[in-house]
Each structure stands twice: as C-alpha cells, then as structure tokens.
Design a protein that fits this description.
alpha+beta; five-stranded antiparallel sheet; three-stranded antiparallel sheet
C-alpha cells in the first residue's frame, strides 16, 4: 500500500487504537525479558518515548509487561527507542548515588541508513528510496548476517525494517549482549570497509592477501552488482557517473579505458573491459591491483553507522514502533524472503487499523480455536483481553511479522532453557 494513503495528521487518533489492540506486547516482553534467566533484566532496561511535538522522555523503565502496556497506552508514543540494561532501574536514576548508575548490557546493534549511500545511487537521494536502491539493503543484510554468524558465531539475529529508509540488526545472543565498548568497536571496525567522507574519491582500499571476510563479501556483491550497478544505477552510462568510477582506477588504466569506452557503449561490455584491465595489472604488478573489486565494494558494500554499534548506552528505534513520516510499522524481516521483501508493502498504521473493522477470510477457523479456548469459564479478564488482542492483530497485515518474531523467540527460548537448566544444576551442587 502506498504511504500516500497514510495521513500523518491522523496519527494521534490511530496510535491509541494501535497500542490498545494491535501492538504485540506479549512477544515484545518475551523478547526483552530473555526468559527471566537474569534477575531484573527487563526491569532495568531503559525505554525512551518520543511524544507529540517532539517531546522526548528518557529513562523509562517498567516492572512488568502490564506496567509497560498501561504506560504506552497512556502516553501513546510517536516513537519508541530501546536502550541498555542498567545497574539500577532507569526510572530511579536520579535517586542513585552519582557514578553508580551504569549501562551494563545491551544487544549488539547495527544501523544501516540509505542516506549514507547517496554518492553511489542516482535513482534517489536523502530520505527517498525505491525498489532499485533497496537492493543495497538486501546486500547489506546478506553480508552482515553471514559474517556475524560464520565469523563471530552469533546465532540470534533480529533484522528489522526501520519504517522508512533503512534496516537495523539486533544481535541478541548472551555473548553479544555482554560485549564491552572496546569489543563492540572491534566488531564494527572489522565489518567496516568503506572509509572517508564526501571528499574521499577512493573509499575502499584492498591489499594482498585479500582477507577471507572480504572475499566472502565479494561473493555476495557479485550476485547483485550487474543488475544493481550496471543496469539500475547505470554507473557506466552517463559521462558524470563514468568519471566517478574511473577516478577509482590507476591513472594509466583510466586513460586506456577512456579510449576503449569511445568504441564500446554497452555498460556490461564496459565493465568487462575494466575487469580485463584489472586482470592484466594483477599479472604484471608487484602489489595487488584490485580496482575492479574496490569499485564493486565502494558501490555496494554495507555502510555502517559505527557509533550506533559501539556504545552500550546508545538507544535504537524499537521494532513495532510506527514511523511518523510514512506511517509504516518497523517490522522484523524474514531472511527466507529477503529477496522479495518490499518496504512499500510493509503495512501502515492506517491500513492495519482499517483492517480491524473488516471481516477476513479464514476468520471462522480462528473462532473455532477461540471456542475451545473458552471452555474454562474461570479464566480471568486479563487472559481474555490478551486473547482478543491476539485475535485482533491476526486479522491484519501485521500478523505475518508478529509470527516471524514468534519464530525468532522460539529459537532463542531453546537457549534460555539450556541456561536455566545449567543454573538449577549449579544450585543443586551446593
């Protein structure tokens, strides 16, 4: 659904409905409570809310899911950010002796924003995105997900669409949550290849031997480069974009290529000429001449906001927050469907609120389930409300994204169970 169907003026009316009937509080609490393995883990977590008119409220914390729910339904935040787990309850930080209130743990997070690619995309700029440049986010997820799993051994990675122009990654493994600032910085630096600001012409410099991580990343880039760079962005089409590409190659090669390009107009053929020149250079030069690889990486490699990853106390926009400008929900991304993920198909708050009022196909099945659930008359009102909320989001386009979060949490729960069993075994030994 196009975001033009969303009107930001309606947000104050839609948010109360969203937080009352659609926000997946049960899954949200289950995620941030991490199975209750560590005492006070959820209670010492910082949340921050951005309210209407950009009023920013930090150091919010909650004892229970119910308390979080009530506060969010009372405040109806325009944006929710999740911060660190602190040594004390963030809501009481003013009462704690100076210097003792410390950020102890947080997921290792990554933030990739399309605006950082403005020098290598011609289709859009600033906050705008389209299906052509969205390929950059697909490449980023493919490269980083592989590296974090294979090179660092992390298993529980939650990828989330920001709701507008980027993606976030939450690495939720216990080992990742306990990393120091120095260790986070080391991981972020390891994953960073594109260096330098606007004035830097050549932002990727490779040396021999090429690191295995870079080789693995190039394997991913090579799958997408012809379609993304040569066709969609036409980097070897217009003179201005050709000059930018050739600025990366050695001067003697540049002159030869400029001559060759006079006779060869097809972007794919021009790219073939660049590769041939690189191979020729590699066979004659003493040190590595990898300019064709440097071009591919400069145009396609993920561009990380390293500062977001380094800090333990850095806040990041929460999954299932609503983007006030587009109205889109910040939803988890299923990597099994990554190549077909369409940011423009992500539901807006106006769409899912509208869907609540529509009878949907297959609802009869849900009603059957509810009848069997209702056999116990003594169930309290809270359970009934929770069940209704589940029923509500299942009637909307939000359902598949909540289901993906559920599956992610099931995977994490298996490791929590192991931790809890180990804990109880240790206690028995005393």
């Amino acid at each position: 659904m196009p975001s033009s169907d969303y009107d930001s003026a309606c947000l104050p009316d839609l948010l109360p409905l969203y937080y009352r009937r659609l926000f997946p509080f049960a899954q949200y609490y289950r995620w941030l409570n991490y199975g209750g393995v560590q005492k006070n883990y959820f209670q010492n977590r910082e949340f921050s809310f951005t309210l209407k008119d950009d009023i920013y409220v930090r150091y919010q914390s909650f004892s229970t899911q119910n308390e979080l729910e009530k506060e969010m339904q009372k405040m109806n935040p325009y944006k929710i950010d999740v911060g660190a787990v602190y040594s004390h309850r963030p809501s009481q930080h003013n009462t704690v002796k100076s210097g003792t209130f410390q950020a102890l743990e947080k997921e290792l997070v990554f933030d990739i924003d399309m605006t950082d690619y403005d020098d290598v995309r011609s289709c859009c700029s600033a906050a705008d995105i389209c299906s052509k440049c969205w390929t950059l986010m697909t490449i980023a997820i493919r490269i980083l997900d592989r590296a974090l799993r294979d090179d660092f051994g992390f298993q529980h990675l939650l990828w989330v669409y920001s709701g507008r122009r980027g993606v976030h990654c939450w690495v939720c493994d216990e080992a990742a949550r306990k990393l120091s600032v120095a260790a986070r910085s080391a991981v972020a630096e390891y994953l960073s290849l594109v260096k330098g600001g606007e004035e830097t012409v050549k932002k990727v410099v490779l040396s021999d031997p090429i690191h295995p991580f870079i080789r693995e990343s190039l394997t991913v880039v090579e799958q997408y480069f012809p379609r993304y760079a040569l066709q969609d962005q036409d980097i070897l089409g217009r003179k201005e974009s050709i000059d930018k590409v050739l600025a990366i190659v050695p001067e003697d090669v540049r002159k030869e290529l400029q001559q060759d390009f006079q006779n060869e107009k097809k972007p794919e053929s021009r790219w073939k000429l660049i590769r041939e020149q690189a191979l020729r250079k590699q066979s004659t030069a003493k040190k590595g001449q990898h300019f064709e690889k440097e071009i591919m990486l400069q145009y396609c490699y993920p561009r990380l906001d390293v500062n977001v990853s380094k800090g333990v106390n850095h806040l990041l926009k929460s999954p299932f927050s609503v983007h006030p400008k587009t109205g889109r929900i910040s939803v988890p991304i299923d990597l099994k469907e990554l190549d077909t993920f369409d940011p423009f198909a992500v539901p807006t708050i106006s769409l899912i609120c509208e869907e609540l009022d529509r009878p949907r196909k297959g609802e009869a099945e849900g009603e059957e389930e509810e009848k069997s659930e209702d056999t116990n008359d003594k169930e309290n009102e809270k359970d009934a409300t929770e069940r209704r909320k589940i029923r509500d989001y299942k009637r909307t386009s939000l359902a598949k994204y909540v289901k993906h979060l559920d599956q992610f949490l099931d995977g994490m729960a298996r490791s929590w169970k192991g931790d809890l069993l180990r804990k109880s075994d240790l206690q028995k030994e005393f």
